[in-house]
Design a protein that fits this description.
4-stranded antiparallel beta sheet, globular, alpha/beta, 9 helices, single chain, 298 residues
């Protein structure tokens, strides 16, 4: 991958910021610092900006998330929250609406099928996949037939449905046992199953976080990108960043951040920078905003 001639040397990354452990990560962070107005900062919601909780309806953005994003967003090309949740739910749980400084924020919900822009405050989305309604009708009966998996429950996500096993007596055993039947149910109705941290999401095919991120980076003609996530669904976004690094002669520098969890080592192994959960992610974003301001002041 070619180097950005305007970027500071990776060795000059300010000591206040954690240093990525890989050369591509250090190059990407340097590029973001050098040209923040050409950078896209993309973030998962649950587990990255918000702590994982037993009831997803109770999830809320870390208290420092909105202030950090409001400080950073005006200095970068865009901040994008990319989530499997409906866009309006992520906006509500994140507290993103009507916040000064968040004009450059978008929420790409349902893996990019929905889009909320802070400027307009509206959600744009296509018609729902008919298979979701069919699965919605059959799913309670399927779970009832396997009554030994008490504690598994359904989350309604509008354009998708999710089955959580975190409350089950043996969460991993319930997850493993349900994966096959749910996969068969999804396939009958033209859906796919997306596994996560003790959750199996049944959703339409053809869109994932990687596709959503790639399309948005290209839409803005960004020169660098940061993506932070915590779960298996974020692997597609990781793959997209890795491809962007190499698909053109110079590549687009990309920084892969893992909101650390022992539950998903697949993500941690590919990350350039490991942060210890949403609190550490928020601290990193706030410090990044401060460092961009310091460099602009020179």
């Amino acid at each position: 991958m070619g180097s950005n001639p305007h970027a500071p040397a990776p060795s000059e990354i300010p000591s206040e910021l954690p240093t990525p452990t890989t050369p591509p990560g250090r190059e990407a962070l340097a590029a973001i610092l050098a040209r923040p107005d050409r950078a896209v900062v993309a973030l998962d919601f649950d587990g990255t900006l918000a702590e994982i909780v037993p009831d997803p309806e109770q999830a809320r953005a870390h208290p420092g998330a909105v202030p950090a994003l409001a400080a950073l967003a005006p200095k970068v090309a865009s901040v994008a929250v990319i989530t499997g949740r409906p866009a309006d739910v992520a906006v509500r749980h994140g507290g993103f609406a009507g916040v000064p400084g968040l004009d450059h924020l978008v929420v790409l919900g349902h893996y990019g099928a929905e889009r909320w822009d802070a400027v307009s405050g509206t959600v744009h989305a296509p018609a729902p996949h008919p298979g979701v309604a069919a699965v919605r009708a059959e799913l309670p009966g399927l779970l009832e037939r396997f009554g030994s998996w008490h504690g598994a429950w359904i989350e309604e996500k509008g354009r998708a449905l999710a089955v959580h096993t975190r409350r089950a007596a043996d969460p991993q055993a319930a997850f493993d046992a349900l994966r096959g039947p749910l996969g068969a149910l999804a396939a009958r109705h033209g859906l796919i199953v997306e596994p996560g941290r003790l959750v199996l999401e049944l959703r339409p095919p053809g869109m994932d976080k990687g596709m959503a991120l790639t399309q948005y980076v290209r839409e803005l003609d960004a020169e660098s990108v940061l993506y932070a996530g915590d779960d298996l669904g974020d692997l597609a976004a990781y793959a997209a960043v890795e491809k962007l690094r190499t698909e053109s002669p110079d590549g687009i520098p990309g920084l892969l951040v893992c909101s650390g969890s022992a539950e998903v080592p697949e993500l941690a192994e590919r990350a350039d920078l490991l942060l210890n959960g949403p609190g550490a992610v928020v601290d990193f974003l706030a410090t990044l905003a401060q460092q961009v301001q310091c460099r602009e002041g020179h």
